[in-house]
Write a structure and sequence with these properties.
single chain, mainly alpha, globular
């Protein structure tokens, strides 16, 4: 079975998660989106520490810039500052899994996370801030690099990644609900 077909069910589950839908609809607050960015920062930082990627790939620095931008924007309007601290217990399990992988075994997660930004992320333009995370200079080259390495044998590991992403979206959504009712 081809990779896309073997991961389609989990892909659709992740896409339909309530937190992801709020983000897609542009309904996240600065606080909620900043928490999401911290999770993304940790994931991309872990991936980028495991494998040497072309500069066009590098996302962790862009994500950190997005966090700084939103923290500054938030502080201008609110007495309680947002933290620039990028630690997040929400992404800890996924990052632990990523840290256990070899350089070659990390590629299914590059496929999952980078293509998510390159495709689905391009529809996430209703976000607080400028969204540097989604800006790729040579998106066609990055996609081509990933597709040239892509193997159908990655399906199990990509699905593991989706399991973590789904869990992360559940935790982010729960945190969103907890904040609304506290």
């Amino acid at each position: 079975m081809r990779l896309r077909e073997a991961t389609d069910v989990k892909h659709r589950l992740a896409e339909g998660m309530p937190f992801n839908m709020l983000m897609f609809e542009g309904k996240l607050t600065i606080e909620q989106y900043t928490e999401y960015l911290k999770v993304q920062y940790n994931i991309f930082h872990e991936i980028e520490s495991k494998v040497v990627l072309p500069n066009d790939f590098i996302r962790a620095g862009k994500i950190f810039s997005d966090i700084v931008e939103l923290v500054c924007k938030y502080e201008d309007k609110n007495a309680q500052p947002l933290s620039i601290d990028t630690s997040s217990d929400i992404s800890a399990e996924y990052c632990k899994h990523l840290s256990s992988l070899s350089e070659e075994s990390i590629w299914p997660h590059i496929y999952l996370n980078y293509l998510a930004l390159l495709y689905g992320g391009q529809m996430m333009k209703k976000i607080p801030g400028s969204g540097k995370m989604f800006d790729f200079e040579n998106s066609h080259d990055i996609i081509k690099t990933i597709r040239n390495k892509q193997l159908d044998d990655w399906a199990d590991e990509v699905n593991v990644g989706y399991d973590y992403i789904i869990e992360i979206f559940e935790k982010l959504h729960k945190k969103t609900i907890d904040v609304q009712f506290s």
